[in-house]
Amino acid sequence: MAAKTTPTGASRPSGLPPLRRVQSSYIQVADQLRDLILRGDLAVGQKLPSEAEMAPLLGVSRSTIREALRILTTEHLIETRRGIQGGAFVAVPDSERLEGMFNTSFSMLALTNQVDARSFLQAMRALEGPAAALAAAARGGDQVEELKRTAAMVDPADQEAAMQQSADFHSAILRASGNKLLEAMGRPVSAVARSKFRRTVPGLEFWERNQRAHQELLKAILAGDENLAYELATRHIDEDLSPYYLPPEEADRDGAGA
């Protein structure tokens, strides 16, 4: 019986089931180390064995270990330090770095048309609604002062100031939630939506309505009304922001919540 051809062009003897191609050694090493880090078997801040120590343990060359560590460094899972006490260490989590990674990934999804404006608005709604409710539940500390400052009325005729005020207020809502994950995901979603999907420069009426919505939401948060804060935050995205990002026929039809 004739041999079959694999997707790579190599012939496969008849009767032999499909085989998965073996990955490069450095990828397998990176996979093992990544799993150890993500399971917590290698603790944050822990120093990894040297290349010379790991190579014989894994049966690979030092250059293979070096390439695997380079992969994990680009993923921000490990960091290298120089000096006598230097080496490779499990990286300390950094929310700003995580936010930057989300920003890059979301930007690429938008740039390659894999995610549209409606998807970003739905994500904003899903993140900022709960964030507003959590902010209302907390309603204390420095976050309240930041909310008041970013909700302060600015001249709606000053497009740049109004745009910055709006971005700052939405960021403040996420920060006031006290939830690092909501903040790390929510800020990049909003930032990419503003930079990639803004159809036109809004007029004076939009900015006046936008600032009134911010003021109403601020009052609900300061009053500790979680349900109202959630309702106002999601309504703001559905009714005020949708026309800003979606084509008129879509925005008029159902907003972002559909």
Automatic annotation (TrEMBL):
PANTHER family cross-referenced by the UniProt entry: TRANSCRIPTIONAL REGULATOR, GNTR FAMILY, UXU OPERON TRANSCRIPTIONAL REGULATOR
UniProt GO MF annotations: DNA binding; DNA-binding transcription factor activity
Alphabetical list of InterPro entries matching this protein: GntR_C (IPR011711), TF_FadR/GntR_C (IPR008920), Tscrpt_reg_HTH_GntR (IPR000524), WH-like_DNA-bd_sf (IPR036388), WH_DNA-bd_sf (IPR036390)
Protein name, as recorded: GntR domain protein
All residue ranges annotated as the HTH gntR-type domain in the record: 23-93
Key words of the record: DNA-binding, Transcription, Transcription regulation
